[in-house]
Specification:
The chain contains 22 helices and no strands. With 580 residues, the protein is mainly alpha-helical. The radius of gyration is 27 Å and the shape is globular.
Length: 580
């Protein structure tokens, strides 16, 4: 028979009173609750990362499908020069301001954990605003005074557009603090909704301009860009105001109880004793990432900078290149990018920066090892599938999308080259995410030096290939750039996980059976394009669809973790429907 707690305590020499015994039992219960809460929190990071990636992919896919269809309409109603001015020149200005102003701060602060130390972290994020003012002023001046101006009929619209885009870049930085809080506390749906508002507003204004103001498309689009930024920022603050006001009243809202804030004022910059406290560790990491960010931006958008600053292509050619490049990078935009963002958050939360793998939490280490291997395998296979089928169906896609003018003049060859680039992008995004989440401050600085050399080499290589091959040279140079970046990141992964078995880099070695099926499918599709496409385009399309289903089924069967994930999602949905 078991001994009563009171009797056991008395046998040690001191008998606890009933009140003391109750107090001790309450402490035990609290300890158990904290333990379960910690375990649930750790599990939720992985689950929410998967959920975030899934929702982001679905949302991005919806956005891109809508944008895809609307752009097909827009292409037939505006000139190539206007398309090049909006999609290349002005969007490049916006991307550059946003990236240089916030990227380093985001990467440094996303690894914050717990409910302590938020004042210094939020103050650091608020530095995005003054930095964006500086970058907007500098880059706005460059876009107006250094770059070649468009034709006389577009000159005034271009100037107005530059001013509006620069102001929008500053406004968007006011959303960085609530964005950070939403990311860390897993407000996945909030980000999805506001990303939709941001993109939909810009696209709808562009369609409105094309239909009702065809002579002022650039100005109306720029106004829509500015309004989209305002709505994006206002949406975040309105959402958190409602969470702070009504969240505590909702017992089902688990997020509100986790937040270490209770009002919007706590998200604003704060001073302590006349000083502006900033998290010292995050500050060092942010500064290091800023230097790396400049190099990464040059490497990522290098072809656009060369087109814009060196005039390698005319505005009309830039417009066509951008349309084809966007078609080729659909997968990178609506699949790879959300996956990369979720992977970085997952790795940064599970991995302690500056600590060797042998000293990491064993459970977290196994999650990171397994997760990295699986996502590498999945992204590699996705890239290969796009390459295999995209090569034989590029001409059909361009003719359906923009007509014979888009498919002609080298458009088909350019889209095929983009499919090759997508295969490199698929792997590079994941390897860089892991490398950036585990590198120490000194490793980041060392990596930055390599990126400086790579940036200079890439720009020179791009200029040479573009001069020889035209727009295709831009894509091939980017492929070489991505291959070198993958090599650098793989070296960091090997060094960080040296001695860990099995290595997550095994994810880059797909099954030979799958490779054989991909090779056979690609050969069949290419033969179909050569002998069937011109006479029987529908048969060519149906054959590709059938082979795609065969390849997809083979991947699901051979890669057991994909099948297990699908089964678990099905069971979860089925169980939810059954309980409801």
């Amino acid at each position: 028979m078991g001994t009563r707690p009171g009797a056991e305590a008395g046998s040690t020499g001191k008998r606890l009173s009933e009140a003391e015994l109750r107090e001790e039992m309450e402490k035990v219960v609290e300890d158990l609750k904290e333990g379960y809460a910690k375990h649930d929190a750790e599990e939720s990071i992985g689950n929410s990362s998967i959920k975030a990636a899934t929702l982001n992919m679905i949302t991005q896919m919806s956005f891109r499908v809508i944008t895809f269809l609307l752009n097909a309409f827009v292409l037939r109603h505006i000139s190539r020069d206007v398309m090049g001015l909006i999609n290349v020149r002005l969007n490049l200005l916006d991307d550059t301001i946003i990236f240089l102003s916030r990227e380093g701060f985001r990467l440094a602060c996303l690894g914050h954990r717990g409910k302590e130390g938020w004042k210094g972290t939020l103050n650091l994020m608020w530095l995005c605003v003054p930095l964006s003012v500086i970058w907007s002023a500098i880059l706005g001046w460059v876009w107006l005074n250094v770059l070649p101006l468009p034709s006389e009929e577009l000159h005034s619209q271009y100037v107005t557009g530059v001013y509006m885009v620069a102001v929008s870049g500053v406004i968007q930085m006011f959303a960085e603090v609530p964005w950070l809080v939403g990311q860390i506390f897993l407000y996945v749906r909030l980000r999805v909704v506001l990303d939709f508002v941001w993109m939909a507003t810009r696209v709808l204004f562009l369609v409105y301009a094309v239909v009702f103001h065809p002579d002022n498309v650039v100005e109306v689009w720029a106004l829509g860009h500015l309004i989209a930024g305002i709505l994006f920022v206002a949406g975040y603050y309105l959402a958190f105001s409602m969470i702070f006001k009504f969240g505590q009243q909702q017992t089902s809202c688990k997020h509100s109880s986790d937040l270490p804030f209770s009002s919007i004022s706590q998200l604003l910059p704060s001073f302590s004793g006349g000083t502006f406290p900033i998290h010292p560790e995050y500050r060092k990491v942010a500064v290091s990432f800023m230097g790396q960010g400049v190099m990464k931006q040059v490497l990522t958008e290098g072809e656009r900078y060369l087109m814009t600053f060196l005039g390698l292509l005319t505005l009309g050619q830039q417009g066509i290149y951008d349309v084809v490049a966007n078609l080729g990078s659909l997968a990178a935009r609506f699949v790879f990018r959300p996956v990369e963002e979720s992977c970085y958050f997952f790795f940064s939360q599970q991995w302690k920066r500056g600590v060797g793998w042998s000293d990491q939490n064993p459970e977290h280490l196994e999650k990171v090892r397994q997760g990295l291997a699986r996502i590498l395998r999945l992204m590699l296979l996705t890239g290969l599938v796009i390459l295999v089928f995209g090569f034989s169906y590029s001409d059909m896609l361009l003719r359906l999308y923009g007509g014979a003018n888009l498919a002609g003049d080298g458009g088909t060859a350019l889209l095929r080259a983009q499919c090759l680039l997508v295969a490199f992008l698929a792997v590079n995004g994941v390897t860089e995410c892991f490398a950036r989440s585990v590198m120490t401050d000194s490793e980041i600085n060392s990596f930055n030096k390599k990126l400086v050399f790579l940036s200079v080499s890439y720009l020179a290589f791009t200029w040479i290939l573009t001069s020889i091959l035209g727009p295709i040279g831009l894509v091939l140079a980017n492929c070489a750039n991505m291959a070198i970046r993958i090599f650098f990141s793989v070296q960091i992964i090997r060094t960080t996980l040296e001695g860990l078995h099995p290595s997550p880099l095994a994810g880059l070695n797909p099954d030979n059976d799958i490779l054989l099926i991909l090779l056979c499918s690609g050969t069949c599709c290419q033969l179909s394009e050569m002998y069937l496409y011109f006479w029987f385009p529908v048969v060519h399309f149906l054959l590709g669809a059938l082979l795609f289903l065969v390849v997809a089924a083979s991947i699901v069967v051979k890669e057991d973790f994909v099948l297990a994930f699908i089964v678990s999602r099905y069971r979860a949905v089925f169980a939810k429907e059954k309980t409801s």
